[in-house]
Every structure is written in structure tokens, then in C-alpha cells.
């Protein structure tokens, strides 16, 4: 089991979905618990940043062992959630060597893929390890401790994507074997509902 903490971002209001997408059914569970389940297969320390509907979601996770933290500024964007979660992690352990950031609405991100990112980190501990998408790098992404000061200053919509773009010379890319999609709208959820059978 790896000792790099995982920071799972689940604070959004799901406005385009029209309901808390974190609670949408996925396989035998929900999108949020599905993400936590896979994260806990590779790390003993899983932190979940909550925002909208945080009390309901905190209760939803109460028996998982994941540590939840509330980002009061969640409406400002992903950057503030990364900073909020990282502060919580460092409060628990100031010697944390790195953090792996992922989203709650990417159900194709499984434990096997997270292990690939962690393996790449072990080969190049000072590099940022990020997921390769067409034309950009994104999350899941692992940031070593040298990047923590900058991550703690993130705010608003200036999230991991912007930071990766500005530090592309230090980014090691991992290429997914299957497309990693976000579920943002009812149409996207319906389109991918059949994927639940594979999990």
C-alpha cells in the first residue's frame, strides 16, 4: 500500500447535472464511493474535499474511512479545493512527500491506473506526473512536495490544469489505455451508464 495521500475533489455543485452527481448510482455503489474505493486500494490516506451538499456527502462517506474536509469557497473553482485539501493533508502530516489529485466524476480512473501514476512517480520523484489528454495534461496528477507552496496559493478556476500548463517542462505524462471522461450532464451519464457493468 502506497503512502502518498490521495486528494479526491468532490466539492462541485453539479449544476449541469441538476442533482448531486457524487450520489449517482455507479455499479453497486455511487460515483463518489466508487472513486473512494479505488483510491483506498492504493493509498491508506484518502482525503475528500466537499463543498455543495457537504453534510449529506460527509454522512455518505462516514463508514468508508476517508477523511473529508469542507471547502467553504468551493463555488470559486477547483483551485480553492486543491488548496483546501492540501492544507488538511499537511496539517495531519507536514512531512507529506507528494499528493495525488483526482476527480470524483471520472469513473474510468481505477486502482490499476492510479498505480501506474505512482509507479511513474517512484522513477522520477521530482517530476509532476500527469494524465495525457489530447492537447493537454490533466488529472489524475501527482505533485511532489516542491510544488506544495504553489498549490496552496491556487484559487478560483486556476486549478491543476493551469498549473500543469505553466510547468510543462517538469511534467511526465501517463497515457491511459482507455479514455478518461468526466460526467457533467445527464446526457453524459446516460451515455456511459453501460460502463458500470465493467466495474
What is the radius of gyration computed over CA atoms, rounded to a whole number of angstroms?
Answer: 15 Å
What is the succession of H and E elements? EEEHEHEHEHEEHHEH
Low-confidence stretches: none
User: Order of strands in the sheet with the most strands?
Assistant: 5-4-1-6-8-7-9
| Name given to the CATH homologous superfamily | Spore Coat Polysaccharide Biosynthesis Protein SpsA, Chain A
And the CATH topology? Answer: Spore Coat Polysaccharide Biosynthesis Protein SpsA, Chain A
Shape: globular
Helix fraction? 25-40%
Name of the CATH architecture: Alpha-Beta Complex
Total count of domains: 1
**How many distinct beta strands?**
9
* Largest sheet: number of strands, sense, barrel closure: 7 strands, mixed
Write down the CATH class: Alpha Beta
